[in-house]
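Good morning C.,

I know you're traveling, so I'll keep this short. The sequence:
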Amino acid sequence: WKFGDGYFSNISNPTHTYSAPGDYQVSLISSADSGCTDTATSIVHVLEIPQAEFTFNPDTCRLSAGINNFSQGASYYQWTSAGVTLSSDQNPTIPVPSGTNFTVTLTAISDSGCVDSITHSCILPNLPVSDFQWSVPPCDSMVSFTNNSTGGVGYLWDFGDSTSSNILSPNHTYTIAGDVPVTIYTTNIHGCTDTLTKNIFFVSYKEAGFSISQDSCSGIVTLADVTSNAVSYQWNFGDGTTSSEKIPSHVYAKDGDYKISLRVNGGYSCVDSISNFFRDRKS
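The tokens, ready to paste straight into the viewer:
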């Protein structure tokens, strides 16, 4: 056998590997015991085998990786992981879970159907996870926050009252009370951020107080200087009518002397109340 690339064999049915693609003239010379010979020639087309190669361009925060495909001699691509097809694009962006050894296989296919494959692994670090607890003594305004977040190196607190802090586990004194949305932003070393908002609820002591005025023409009684940031308001106008609004208005049916009472934070241990006397004299 003459394989056309400088190599020979005298085996009956040889196997030969070519070092490069191309057209090779292969000759078989057979001889009988008498010394008679015969030669057969054929052209063998050795096709180019694709070379698969790629690298990852990870995006840690988005849990994805762009692919840099450096394959040669291929026209078609298949990206798989654990037998699941991820994409057939040449340079896809694929989802990558965090904290695991994620293995991706590229199968590169030439126009002639020749195949090569390669496998690489990508590991993305865990994303930060925000979490916190809070506590406050009864009737107090200072809330203590305990940071239970994981994977973070920086923190930003939004206390829900237009103030903030970057302390790990801060204490914060509120002027407001009731339901307050508190948000924590946790950032890891890669700049990835996780956000968590919890509605905290607390009742702080508020001293009951208000002032009274009346429009002499309409007779409307207006209340002002009312206690701020109480959780609840209970008004008694002394004529059998009540209100739970923070700042109600009232019109008396007839002239007389009335006791207007305000009770704040009713139903809680920090309740406080006050009463003011009012003489209704319409013009």
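Safe travels,
E.
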